[in-house]
Amino acid sequence: MTLQGLYQELSDLNETEVQTIFKMVQALKRTRVSPLAYIEELMNFRALGFDHEKNKYIHRMLITDELTNRYQILHGGVTATFIDTAMGSTVFQDMGDDTRVVTLDMSVNFLAPGENGWLDAETEIIKKGKTVLVMETKVNDERQRLIASASATFFLLK
Length: 158
Known about the structure:
This protein has 2 domains: 30 residues; 114 residues, Thiol Ester Dehydrase, Chain A (Roll). Helices cover 31% and strands 35% of the residues.
């Protein structure tokens, strides 16, 4: 793909489609200076830190048109990605950025549609063993409506 070929592909896009491409390019460029992956940048992923009152790690993402399905609700795969990313971020905050971890298993319950605005994920470490971590996450929308809940098992790499 050349720039000329890309320009040709872009030439017949409508204004909304151009805005989508712009957001995607900006997210891609942010990965040059951010530790976050492209999808995390596209979700506007934010680690808000540990809430001592709730005893949970809090993360946030923004529902945008680019992340919705044909029904204009947050795509289930993006919801699961947000949860998985929040859990991974929880491990790094709790155990350090040099920790290496992979998801072994994750179960997500989709409870209500994510329609617009910001979502908050509250993650709790249930068990922290030598090689295995178990976590639970609840995702709420801006109205405090429960969108999804999940439990997952992570494996600590040596």
